[in-house]
Design a protein that fits this description.
about 140 residues
């Protein structure tokens, strides 16, 4: 009886606390991935505006220059004289870096999920042993 109580209370409780912590970390990773994806999408939209300005708007007009200056800061290596091709190349590089970041965060998330699953499986085993000890006991 004492052994089953020990298993149920101490070991399972300890694992449940760890599972709760892992759930929080997994949730954080999912939020990070979503934030990075949203950032990529936002920059894509801004890059689209810049490229359209290059093809459609008169580059000498004051308003065009103001809008262009507003969006040029979105990527660090863009300059006032950056062409549409340079803008797209810079965005592609930025997007690839962000995708790599997402991959790393996702790998962390999967690792945490596996650890959580292992602890949940261990808890099931502990509960089965505790039940068996109570039956025998």
């Amino acid at each position: 009886m004492v052994a089953s109580t020990f298993i149920s209370f101490f070991l399972v409780s300890r694992n449940n606390q760890h599972i709760t912590m892992l759930d929080s970390q997994i949730r954080d990773r999912k939020i990070m991935i979503q934030d990075i994806s949203n950032n990529i999408e936002q920059k894509r939209s801004q890059v689209t505006t810049l490229v359209l300005l290059d093809f459609v708007a008169d580059k000498n007009k004051k308003k065009t220059k103001q809008v262009r200056e507003k969006y040029l800061h979105i990527l660090p290596n863009l300059k006032d004289e950056s062409s549409a091709v340079e803008i797209l190349e810079e965005f592609e590089s930025h997007r690839n870096d962000k995708y790599e970041e997402i991959d790393l965060v996702y790998i962390e998330q999967i690792t945490l999920e596996r650890e959580k699953h292992h602890l949940e499986q261990t808890n099931k085993n502990f509960s089965s042993i505790a039940t068996l000890l109570q039956i025998i006991g």
